[in-house]
């Protein structure tokens, strides 16, 4: 069997296996819609807020109007007590509360400090952050307004009062996430993890289902089989990776800082290392259902140790060291630095070289594993034929 015939046979075996087709093609297409779906709204706004007003003054009502005008929050009700406000939050009708203390107006006019109390549903971090940010902004604006009135009462001019209150002007420009949304932050790393896991599962299922059977894989050498399988899966995942990094990045408005050539140069060893790792991993199993179960269990740990969801500084060093055996970990970090943060090629060179080293290492393991499997079953066939009368 020639090498081209082997590649064609591998592609036929992949496309004829419904489990692999669903995992590889169905998984990649399905997850490209499912995972980004919860984050399409990007930044939470207009979060429902209830107010407990113990002052009932003109200034407290003005503060409530300013809070309602804030883009982050929406005042939906005034309640009489904090306990009643908590019931609104517990029932899901509101996500936060603002408590205006008694004598709010009097203390402000006398120049005394006033404490505004606020809280929110911390079950959803982004919602709580939106409520807190909106109320802090409203409180600061109210404080500046009262300070301006005080300066005017002391005889300062309007222009001088405004200058004294706005000594520092903040011009915040996001460097790596212009929309300040969650989708451009989470999607790039998550897509690489999906490619990594589906590729590992697909190659593992194919190998685990073939080792005990007779077929074309018995007619070639272990080296030729490993090379042919890698070429077949690389052809498929080149198209799937182009769909993720090309179309999906554009559709979800993910920032692109690197050129096509540098991204392709980075993803080449990532896909090669993952394919070789999947073939090597398949040599550990002869049941086609086990690779999926094992690899799905390690999906979440890989997600957290890759560094874009949870800071690696807060993860034990031993866990971070062990995680380096998975191609997804250096691949995701290098991709984020290069494509989302605009880093230079020199800065991701250590991860790139690590991926090439992993390619060589897993290729050697795949060759040894495939040779051991084919040799063992060849001996078993010979022994069985000797026993047959």
Describe the 3D structure:
The chain is mainly α and 389 residues long. It folds into 2 domains: 3-39 and 184-387, no CATH class; 47-165, 3-Layer(aba) Sandwich (abc type-2 transporter like fold). Helix content is 64%, strand content 6%. It contains 15 helices and 4 strands. It has helices at residues 3-16, 18-34, 58-69, 82-90, 104-109, 125-153, 158-165, 183-210, 222-251, 260-282, 290-297, 299-305, 317-323, 328-340, 349-387, and strands at 47-53, 73-79, 96-100, 117-120. Strands 2-1-3-4 form a 4-stranded mixed β-sheet, sandwiched between helices. Helix 8 (183-210) packs antiparallel against helix 9, helix 8 runs parallel beside helix 10 (260-282) and helix 10 (260-282) packs parallel to helix 15. The longest helix is centred in the C-terminal third of the chain and has 39 residues, at 349-387. Residues 382-387 have low confidence and may be disordered.
Tags for this model:
389 residues, mainly alpha, abc type-2 transporter like fold, 2 domains, 15 helices, disordered C terminus
List strands and helices in order, with pairings:
Blueprint: H1 3-16, H2 18-34, E1 47-53, H3 58-69, E2 73-79, H4 82-90, E3 96-100, H5 104-109, E4 117-120, H6 125-153, H7 158-165, H8 183-210, H9 222-251, H10 260-282, H11 290-297, H12 299-305, H13 317-323, H14 328-340, H15 349-387
Parallel strand pairs: 1-2, 1-3
Antiparallel strand pairs: 3-4
Helix pairs in contact: 1-9, 2-8, 6-7, 8-9, 8-10, 8-11, 8-14, 9-10, 9-15, 10-14, 10-15, 14-15
